[in-house]
Write a structure and sequence with these properties.
single chain; 430 residues; alpha/beta; Alkaline Phosphatase, subunit A; 2 domains; 8-stranded mixed sheet; two-stranded antiparallel ribbon; 9 helices; 31% helix; globular
Length: 430
């Protein structure tokens, strides 16, 4: 995969405009073409990708017996052997209080660490990717991308609302790389202007109301106004990007996989789109839900039972044998994705060095819906890798302890995220 760049860029004298006020922008990455930025700068942009396999992985085929750098490859890690020095495998991590309204509810909180998912009074919190996107999203055409194979979303706003997951690789390709006609761009700008004017009116009314409210209501209104201001900025940024040409890629428009049984085929196409989005610097924060429920992967030899049923194997050896075939294929696809990123050179290194990838599951034992001892891999991102790091299997380390250094590497100045107990974690070394 290659790409061609244009010279169009955000003018250095650009302003954020709203409510009669013009605020000069500082020097931004967006002031050079998004997809030539990496080549023009001595410092490559940092990216973050999170991928969740909602049906988990059979732990005995993933985790080695002995931690450290000299671990023996297991059946699943065998699929990643050429990337052994590019990732770290963690065990003994989990979010607290993840028993929810169903066995799979913890998928909602995998990137948020909010507790009691789906139960009475539950309100989700912002996901790690969206917190990062708020910090770095303005530098790219798409502040973040939320993707999936079955409609589930890993991304949640600060108000606890899930962002819809794009499931169609062809639609995503159109958004990323197909330039609209002049009329389509003009119509888009008109719609953005409509949204801007509406927000201005709402903001004026809200400020008038604020003077008559009590303290607690003013706090709520302030949160609302902050959201309004964020939207104003986003709308202005969208206007800027709408006028700028999209990158051109040496990759034919994909056709969506229509066979419901070909779940892995859908994953493969989406992996390609993620690699292209990162390579062209169209987006730096991406989530991908790899889940599949109640699907018989009939196009994989040796698999005759639906995936969900196999994940609840109850130690049935025949089911585990079929499950192993599927999960090996999942790890093989993940390995192919890492290979794609390593083939792209950027400032003397490969794209994987500049992309931190969080890969794993919200279930430690899918057969019993256990949310303890999650399978977690961190790949790339410029970290020192090559180890299997086993935290206490009985007294798990908070999974969100890992989120803090990942966010810090992306430029966020935070010391805590969700249920984290520390701002560092054993095993993640720079």
């Amino acid at each position: 995969m290659t790409y061609l760049a244009t010279k169009t860029a955000l003018d250095r004298r650009s302003f954020l405009k709203g409510s009669g006020v013009a605020v000069a922008l500082p020097l931004l990455h967006a002031m050079t073409p998004a997809f030539t930025r990496a080549a023009a700068s001595s410092t490559s942009p940092k990216r973050f990708v999170a991928m969740n396999a909602s049906l988990g992985f059979h732990a005995p085929y993933l985790f080695p017996e002995t931690p450290g750098k000299n671990y023996e490859l297991t059946p699943y890690l065998e699929q990643l052997k050429e990337h052994r020095q590019d990732f770290t495998l963690f065990a003994g991590l989990s979010h607290p209080s993840q028993n929810g309204n169903n066995g799979h509810a913890s998928e909602m909180t995998w990137l948020t660490s909010a507790q009691r998912p789906g139960l009475a009074g539950f309100k989700n919190t912002i996901s790690l990717d969206q917190l990062i996107a708020k910090q770095i999203g303005a530098a790219t055409r798409f502040p973040s991308l939320t993707l999936g194979t079955r409609g589930k979303s890993l991304s949640w706003t600060a108000n606890g609302v899930p962002l819809p997951a794009e499931q169609s690789p062809s639609t995503l390709y159109q958004k990323l790389f197909v330039q609209g006609t002049d009329k389509e761009i003009t119509d888009q700008l008109k719609e953005l202007e409509k949204g801007k004017s509406v927000l201005d009116v709402v903001q004026g009314d809200a400020k008038a109301l604020e003077r008559s409210l009590g303290h607690r209501d003013r706090e709520k209104l302030d949160e609302y106004l902050s959201s309004i201001r964020d939207l104003e900025i986003r709308l202005q940024q969208n206007k800027d990007w709408a006028r700028r040409p999209k990158p051109k890629v040496d990759y034919a428009a994909p056709r969506d996989v229509t066979d419901k049984a070909d779940v892995l085929g859908k994953q493969r196409l989406m992996y390609d789109m993620i690699a292209l989005a990162l390579q062209t610097d169209s987006c730096r924060t991406i989530t991908f839900s790899l889940g599949s429920l109640n699907a018989v992967l009939s196009n994989i030899p040796g698999v005759q039972t639906d995936w969900h049923n196999l994940s609840h194997h109850g130690k049935d050896e025949d089911k585990i044998e079929e499950l192993e075939i599927i999960e090996k294929a999942e790890f093989k696809l993940f390995g192919e994705f890492l290979t794609k990123l390593k083939r792209v050179k950027e400032n003397g290194k490969h794209l994987l060095d500049h992309t931190a990838i969080l890969f794993g599951s919200n279930l430690g034992n899918a057969s019993s819906h256990s949310t303890k001892n999650l399978p977690i891999i961190v790949a790339g991102g410029g970290y020192k890798h090559g180890s299997y790091v086993a935290h206490d299997a009985n007294d798990n380390t908070p999974f969100s302890n890992l989120f803090v250094p990942l966010a810090q590497r992306m430029g966020l100045e935070i010391e805590k995220f969700g249920s984290s107990a520390k701002s560092t974690i054993r095993g993640l070394e720079s």
